[in-house]
């Protein structure tokens, strides 16, 4: 036990503890309720007009840190249950989504290779 009351737990053989996405809704019920009031059902709570979550941050009823924690845990929960290759594929698709995804990147690379 640490001086501030925190406890360090050693988990031999385990590399990490998993997340249950169902618990996110319980832990962050306030954010889920706000998200339900957003103008768009697929709101990312970043810059969309009519975002109830961003309005709550502006009003001071929700902290930026709490939203960041929620988004971080939600992203981690998305990868739960995927194998390494699936995780890497998902990350690459997200990274190249601005240029049409990995499919377009592969096409571009093949066309450049043919030009040689």
From TrEMBL:
<dbReference type="GO" id="GO:0005525">
    <property type="term" value="F:GTP binding"/>
</dbReference>
<dbReference type="InterPro" id="IPR004881">
    <property type="entry name" value="Ribosome_biogen_GTPase_RsgA"/>
</dbReference>
<keyword id="KW-0690">Ribosome biogenesis</keyword>
<dbReference type="GO" id="GO:0042254">
    <property type="term" value="P:ribosome biogenesis"/>
</dbReference>
<keyword id="KW-0378">Hydrolase</keyword>
<dbReference type="InterPro" id="IPR027417">
    <property type="entry name" value="P-loop_NTPase"/>
</dbReference>
<dbReference type="GO" id="GO:0003924">
    <property type="term" value="F:GTPase activity"/>
</dbReference>
<protein>
    <submittedName>
        <fullName>Putative ribosome biogenesis GTPase RsgA</fullName>
        <ecNumber>3.6.1.-</ecNumber>
    </submittedName>
</protein>
């Amino acid at each position: 036990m640490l001086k501030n009351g925190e406890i360090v737990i050693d988990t031999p053989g385990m590399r990490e503890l998993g997340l249950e996405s169902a618990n996110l809704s319980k832990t962050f019920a306030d954010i889920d309720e706000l998200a339900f009031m957003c103008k768009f059902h697929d709101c990312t709570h970043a810059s969309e007009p009519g975002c109830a979550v961003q309005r709550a941050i502006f009003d001071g009823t929700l902290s930026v840190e709490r939203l960041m924690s929620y988004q971080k845990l939600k992203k981690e929960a998305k990868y739960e249950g995927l194998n390494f290759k699936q995780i890497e594929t998902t990350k690459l698709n997200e990274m190249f989504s601005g240029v049409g995804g990995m499919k377009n990147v592969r096409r571009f690379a093949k066309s450049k290779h043919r030009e040689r």
